[in-house]
Design brief:
The protein has 217 residues and is mainly β. It is 8% helix and 57% strand.
């Protein structure tokens, strides 16, 4: 799964499909207007065979001074709401079905803008249920792999390429996965994500960005 060809394939995605209407690039880059990213979601088994056909997904991004709220929508009434001060390190995750909230804690300060510093990180992470029970406990690493220019609907963004790993336990089971994330610091959102473990690979590729969407909350 994690072959050289695997990573070279991602490098070809310097431009995303030009679907939808032209973007108001000034508003997106210089204000805190909300927007949504529409993704194509592709799933593969460890042997490279597809799991079903590609599906669609959406991430609704609400940017505020000092906080970003991202809703990952997977179907009617089904979403995950993630709060963070800076991208890559959530402070709270809410799952709509069944309703539950989990909070995150780290051995490093999650309020620091590590994307801006672009220094490698090695730290521990915990995710706790509302009653204080530990759901996830893992050692995590983050590495910054340079930048790539991505274009969506005529609007070009500098994307920071991030490699992230988790090794530990989640829900009482072994956890081991890696992600490649192409993050836009201006949007506070990922335009490309690939998650890999020993049994599967899931890829989220941007198909369009819009300000015309129905908020889930």
């Amino acid at each position: 799964m994690r072959s050289a060809a695997f990573f070279c394939w991602a490098a070809l995605l310097a431009a995303f499909p030009a679907a939808g209407q032209p973007l108001d690039r000034t508003a997106l880059k210089t204000t805190l207007v909300p927007f949504a990213v529409d993704y194509k979601v592709t799933r593969l088994k460890a042997d490279g065979s597809p799991v079903g056909t590609p599906t669609s997904g959406q991430s609704q991004i609400i940017r505020r001074a000092g906080e970003t709220i991202a809703y990952t929508v997977s179907g009617p009434g089904r979403y995950i709401r993630v709060r963070s001060v800076h991208p890559l390190m959530a402070t709270e995750s809410y799952f709509s079905q069944p309703p539950r909230t989990r909070t995150w804690s780290y051995s490093i300060d999650p309020t620091v803008d590590y994307v801006a510093r672009r220094q490698p990180l090695d730290f521990t992470a915990e995710q706790k249920e509302a009653d204080g029970t530990i759901f996830l406990s893992a050692r995590a690493t983050i590495a910054f792999l340079g930048t790539v220019s991505g274009e969506a609907q005529g609007c070009r963004f500098e994307l920071v390429k991030v490699a992230r790993t988790f090794e530990g336990t989640a829900g009482g089971k072994s956890l081991s996965n890696s992600s490649e994330i192409w993050m836009s610091p201006e949007l506070r959102a990922a335009l490309f994500t690939r998650i890999v473990d020993n049994t599967y690979m899931v890829t989220y590729t941007t198909m369009g960005i819009t300000r015309d969407f129905k908020p889930v909350e």
